[in-house]
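Running co-folding for zinc ion.
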Amino acid sequence: MIEIVSGAEVEETSGDALVVPVFEERVWGPGADWAAGLLGGWLEGYLDRADFTGKLGQLASVPGGERIDYDEVVFAGVGAEVDAETVRRVAGTAGRALTRHRIVATTLHQIGIDDAAELVTVGFLLGQYHFDKYRSDPPPILTEQLVLAGAGEGAGERIEHGRVVAGAVALARDLINEPAGAKPPATLAARIVEIGKEAGFSVSVYDEAECAAERFGGLLGVAAGADNPPRMVVMRHRPEGATSSLALVGKGIVFDSGGLSIKTAKGMETMKTDMSGAAAVVGAMQAIARLGLAIDVTAVAPLTENMTGGSAQRPGDVLRIRNGKTIEVLNTDAEGRLVLADGLSLAAEGEPDLIVDIATLTGACRVGLGSRVGGLLANNDDAAATVEAAAREAGEKVWRLPLEPEYRKEIDSTVADMKNIGGSYGGAITAALLLAEFVGDIPWVHLDIAGPARADAAADYTSEGGTGFGVRTLVALAEQLAG
Ligand code: BES
Ligand code: ZN
Ligand code: ZN
């Protein structure tokens, strides 16, 4: 585990690499002026030839030489206008590039942004994230220590907070990146129990018989075609003296084949990541418990595979959800909303102040917003604004879509209370309109993360595969509500 420490000023410390920020047009940032002065006149010409202007994301590495106590000086472009997300991203880019350096020092946190020590911590740790469990010969990560030069005593708390948040995101990434065959619902549920023990939140697991007794008809319907039985997992953080409450619900389809409305081979390739919503709420719970936030938080994760076995649900079947409403299943690939319906019903029974669900719910949302932005839909403007603010603070991009009541008729069924698909257009909205049927009057926000839950390629602090998108927003939200 990489240690992050606040160290002496840059002139007085040493290491294998020193990362210093440079603004656009090669305006030296903190520490960069000092390093450039010592390196000598050849530096400008070298950076010219390397096309290094200080544009966001650029890195230029030069040997430290005789006059400087670092083996390498890494000039890191931060662009023209720096904000919190810039600091995270630059730290992530450095983290990704410097995995072979044992001791890395930086001045990036001195850039004049609040709580930058935390931003650097989160960015660097996530930049170094790697999922190598199944590689025989993984590329080594040698970094042992990141030294925040001249950060001062006070930075300790921010560093610790950053470590907790980054750890929670990494946990979610690990759960998402795990192959589906290695995380059947019972195994994943057992892992969540362990995580709860270690972090200090309680976990109840409903097995298949208990799911039936609890009338989780949506979850059981989706699970019918799988040999591996489903689990409903309920996590609880109950600190003393909490005056507000939050419920989280995460879609936990450990593999989505589409069911009998089967996906294409290509469409299935990434479907081990269809439990990214569940992973996000587990990660968030870990951080919320570790930070001891003064708010009651309940997180619900319905876990199942969506498979095609002989007892699979058929298009046309009708399911009864926990709250008594019925859904005609016309497309078994629209399964997320079926398991979320049970999860939301259960969450609503606890009458929390706010319910937030998070799900890789619709291809439509991914088509509309792309792979870097999540969709946000809500039955309440204040709740939407609160979650938008949390996402902004966390550096996760969300965009609100309308919960357009005029489209509700698209999910009218001729045999049940509703059907699980709408027409050809507005798929992210019709999916959310179905979910809205299960939250009653409670303020509710739905996050459709079908786009940003996974990444095709690594960039800044985002790793290839599961991204852990949503964890940071949910933690920031819990912090805001805890006051
Ligand atoms: N898990 C998928 C959505 C998805 C697609 C997530 C691509 C990430 C990447 C979901 O269960 C699904 O298949 N939705 C269908 C719904 C449709 C049948 C109404 C979709 O979006 O095509
Ligand atoms: Zn599906
Ligand atoms: Zn799905």
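Result summary
Residues 3-153 form a domain with the Leucine Aminopeptidase, subunit E; domain 1 fold (CATH 3.40.220.10).
The two ends are 31 Å apart (CA to CA).
Job closed.
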